[in-house]
Amino acid sequence: MLSKMIGKTAVSAIVAASLLVTLSDIRPAHASPSVSVKLDDVPLQFDAAPRVDKGITYVPFRTVGEALGIQMNWDNNNQTLSAVGTVQGVQTKVQLQVGSTIATVNGLKVTLPAPPIHSEGRVLIPLSSFSNQFGVKVSWNQATRTVSMVSPQREIHLRGFYAISAFKEIDLIQSMNSVAFGWSRIDRNGLFTLEGEEYQIPPAAGEITPQSIVEDAAAQSIKPYLMVYSLDGQGELTKMLSDSSLSQASIEGIRQAVADNGFGGVCLDFEGLGFKLDAAGQQKLLNDYVKRLRAALPKDISLSIAVPPLNSAYQGYDYKTLASVADDLIIMAYQYNPVGTKAQNPEPNSLVQQAIELALTAGVPKHKLLLGISLFSETPSSVDDKLGLAKRYDLKGAAFWRIGLFRTYSANMEQAISASVTKEVDR
């Protein structure tokens, strides 16, 4: 299960022999075709081409390093690269010099299989350095001349959505940093409610009550959020946002529900804005509402907002303003596949990546962005692609829609997620 996460283990001292390992199947290049590199099954784009020379694969250090979350510093005077990376909580410091086969790894002098080189204005290093020093798994496909890299496990913020049918997987709460409980909505009349067929405070299950679930999560330092859902399918969301009395009533209802049930945060999931109506007008309505809600909530209550991706049909969301008011945004980078697509048909990696880049370009700080992942779409072999993108862009974390689906389609989903990420731990 996901809660049985991979424990932190000490990284063995790095010795010179570890750096002598290269990709044995790679052959010398003689005017060879280009080499492509994938990280977590998603291509890396380089401003200087990777190359193979005398059996050694060279890649631009900065591009790969940044994608792996490695901190880098370049000393132009000494032509020296310094890099610091962390694998399972253990820090590795590496220093390389262009033209030299001698490197320093955690204070030890080691011999490289080949020296770093300059090419196209960039410093290229032997690819094996990433696998040996920073826990990256590397493989080579000779037929396609593709290097495949798998990033090491990393701690990130993990949020799970807990809906009515999630009780059967309630044990997964402990694997999260925060949980959004989908127990309320704006109804068809524009009214906030905790009752209804779709979103409701659930009945007690014996001695376990909704309030006790929330209390237990908070007691484990897992922040419980009240998720407030609304869809503008029949104009109910626009109606509420446009009517001062309805919007104020919803704000008061949310504030009271948070206080009565012990929630530590509010997660707005307001969907469908900017599809048919004027996008700018819809953005202003939502911005004004979010600012009023933030002002009405106690300062210690967090505010999160789930938003559709900018490469979707819904343009009624001002990412920059929402991010400036909220503690974080969840980008729901899914439902790209046609309506009616069966379960476990993975979302296109290219569109998910584009959604992240558009959000960052729009002004959302990466430390406020969570990548929404639908477990309806993903498989154990594809979910690490999405988690890899969250790691590549150094996002705050990932949000899973939803608890209740982890075990529905595959018994291996929790294991696949745990191999890629674990919940962040306060130190």
What does this structure look like?
Helix 8 (349-361) links the parallel strand 20 (328-332) and strand 21 (369-374). The chain has 427 residues and is α/β, with parallel strands linked by helices. The strands form four sheets. Strands 14-15-17-18-19-20-21-22 form an eight-stranded parallel beta barrel, surrounded by six helices. Helix 5 (244-261) packs across helix 6, helix 8 (349-361) runs parallel beside helix 9 (383-392) and helix 9 (383-392) runs parallel beside helix 10 (413-420). The chain has helices spanning 61-67, 128-134, 210-219, 236-242, 244-261, 279-296, 319-325, 349-361, 383-392, 413-420; strands at 36-39, 42-43, 51-53, 56-60, 71-75, 80-87, 90-97, 102-105, 108-111, 117-119, 122-126, 137-141, 146-150, 154-162, 178-186, 192-193, 223-231, 265-271, 302-307, 328-332, 369-374, 397-403, 421-423.
- Looking across the biggest beta sheet, what order are the strands in? 14-15-17-18-19-20-21-22
The biggest sheet, with number of strands, parallel, antiparallel or mixed sense and barrel status, is: 8 strands, parallel, barrel
- Report the uncertain regions: 1-31
Shape: elongated
Class by alpha and beta content: alpha/beta
Work out the strand percent: 25-35%
Determine Rg (CA atoms, Å).
Answer: 24 Å
Distance between the termini: 24 Å
